[in-house]
Design brief:
The protein is of the alpha+beta class and 394 residues long. 48% of the residues lie in helices and 12% in strands. It contains twelve helices and seven strands. Strands 2-3-7-6 form a four-stranded antiparallel sheet, with no helix packed on it. β2 and β3 form a beta hairpin. The chain binds flavin-adenine dinucleotide. Flavin-adenine dinucleotide binds next to β1 and α12.
Length: 394
């Protein structure tokens, strides 16, 4: 298997790098280095810059704004975005609901939602999890009962990220209790302003309130807002969750973090903050992390190469998820070690606090934020079960 990049790939990388160098606003770049919370308007601003270039939704079908890139080009694009400190795409719009509407939506739904979704004129949230239905998602109970041209929805969702920012939710609801659990699930698009829908924030360990509970009390949703057929929601959700996991290793992000950690370590040593023994200890840990990251990168490139030749990508997705998220968390642990007492604050750094190495002020909030990556997108325990079954045949 040839893991080298071709001349075309290298030219593509230069094109992406040049574009990012001139198009990424400096204030966003600095906020990303500091891992400070991006406001909705800032995410939208960057998405619209990408959209103007035609690169907002590269994985979508070409007729809806996608790019016919090879898997290798998609990998290069993601990596260059991370290394340039560019904001990641809003995942609910770009990776999740867009591809589902493009694949299973009606023509009217495509026209209505896809351009606005790509440009972040509308902001989606994901209403899948419920109390009692997380890893075991098919246990979901929120019900939708047909009444004329509407469904009437009752129940509760939980862990809904950025429900307070969203105009629309894509949700899984139960329309049938009689047969196999998966067959009674339907996929609805719900306007967040509909009467009877209320949201309540949950404050998370990183000190922010991005997560929500969402309650439905006789919420009327037009049947026209159903994706595909009634009772086939599970199939559409599987398509979506497959997309959620792709790129979840975020190797570019870990590389970017590691480079910052190395620069910080050198800076602290130069300023005499670290003695020789501490320095050796930290450098060994950074090197161990780098070796594992290189190994993961090779695995990812093998998957990309296999994908480019028409298959084999899926069985490795769980491995990439587990190892990729472990390394993302390792970077935040190393940042806490390097930050020392300066990292013992949960306050989000203020404006102007983002000069390097001022980003250590964000070490603790970022450390706590990144605990989530081993939970969502299918928890790492669930991924290990999948690896045991499908890779190891246990
Ligand atoms: C920050 C964050 C944002 C999220 N955003 C959203 C969102 O926007 N929309 C949405 O719908 N959901 C969202 N989620 C929910 C997420 O999908 C669930 O948390 C996840 O699926 C796990 O479900 P659970 O929390 O109910 O935990 P549970 O499924 O109850 O699991 C609890 C623990 O038991 C383990 N476990 C469960 N089953 C097994 C098993 N069979 N074998 C071994 N171990 C097992 C799990 O790994 C976990 O450690 C978010 C979660 C987080 C943390």
């Amino acid at each position: 298997m040839n893991l080298d990049f071709t001349d075309e790939d290298r030219a593509f990388r230069r094109e992406v790098r040049d574009f990012l160098r001139q198009a990424l606003p400096d204030d966003l770049r600095r906020k990303m280095i500091a891992r400070r919370y991006l406001e909705k308007a800032e995410v939208v601003r960057w998405q619209q810059i990408l959209n103007a270039r035609g690169w907002a939704v590269p994985a979508w079908p070409v007729e809806w704004g996608g790019q016919a890139w090879t898997p290798t080009q998609r990998y290069i694009f993601q990596e260059e975005m991370a290394l340039a400190h560019a904001p990641e795409g809003q995942p609910f719009n770009i990776n999740m609901i867009g591809p589902v509407i493009a694949a299973f939506g009606s023509d009217a739904q495509k026209q209505r939602f896809l351009p606005a979704t790509a440009n972040l004129d509308i902001w989606w949230c994901q209403g899948f999890s419920e109390p009692g239905a997380g890893s075991d998602l098919a246990a979901l109970k929120t019900s939708a009962v047909r009444d004329g041209d509407d469904y009437v929805v009752n129940g509760q969702k939980i862990w809904t990220t950025q429900a307070h920012l969203a105009n629309w939710m894509f949700a899984l609801v139960r329309t049938d209790n009689s047969g196999k659990r998966q067959q009674g699930i339907t996929f609805l698009l719900i306007d967040m302003r509909t009467p009877g829908l209320t949201i309540r924030p949950i404050r998370s360990i990183d000190g922010i309130s991005d997560l929500h509970e969402v309650f439905f009390d006789n919420v009327r949703v037009p049947v026209a807002n159903r994706i595909g057929e009634e009772g086939r929601g599970w199939d559409y959700a599987k398509h979506l969750l497959g997309n959620e996991r792709s790129g979840i290793a975020r190797i570019g992000l870990s590389k970017e973090r590691l480079a910052l950690l190395r620069a910080l370590e050198a800076d602290l040593a130069e300023r005499g903050v670290l003695d020789q023994r501490e320095r050796q200890r930290l450098r060994r840990k950074l090197t161990e992390a780098e070796v594992e990251l290189r190994a993961l990168e090779l695995t990812q490139l093998r998957v990309v190469a296999a994908d480019a030749h028409g298959g084999g990508a899926n069985s490795a997705a769980s491995i990439l998820k587990v190892k990729g998220t472990e390394l993302q968390q390792r970077m935040t642990e190393l940042a806490m070690e390097l930050a020392g007492p300066a990292g013992l604050t949960l306050a989000q750094p203020a404006d102007g606090d983002d000069e390097e190495p001022g980003w250590i002020a964000a070490a603790a909030p970022y450390y706590f934020t990144m605990r989530k990556v081993s939970i969502f997108g299918g928890s790492n325990e669930i991924q290990r079960n999948i690896i045991a079954k499908t890779v190891l045949g246990l």
